[in-house]
Amino acid sequence: MNEKAQIKVMDNGSLRVTGDVELVDKEGNVYETKKAFSLCRCGQSSNKPFCDGTHKKIGFEDQSRVE
Fold it and tell me: What would you measure as the largest C-alpha separation in the chain, in angstroms?
């Protein structure tokens, strides 16, 4: 059974992705991922599209909420 995918917007951080999801680039190439992974939102990761924690060093701030 496939686990429903979830993308969680982390305060001042990454997008945490869990569940059954496939990550592909614009040309259709598939990234190798784990069951859970984090995507960069700050734009400064040296491992894009994945988060490497740089947001903590540069003071990235965003606390998005559903309105």
Answer: 40
- pTM as predicted: 0.91
Measuring CA to CA, which residue among 38, 35, 37, 39 is closest to residue 3?
35
Asked whether the beta carbons of 31 and 24 are under 8 A apart, the reply is yes
**Is the distance from CB of 39 to CB of 49 less than 8 angstroms?**
yes
Q: What is the pLDDT of residues 12-37, one digit of tens each?
A: 999 999 999 999 999 999 999 999 99
Q: Is 23 helix (H, G, I), strand (E, B) or coil?
A: coil
With b meaning 16 or more CB within 10 Å and e meaning fewer, what string describes 1-27? eeeeeeeeeeeebbeebbeebeeeeee
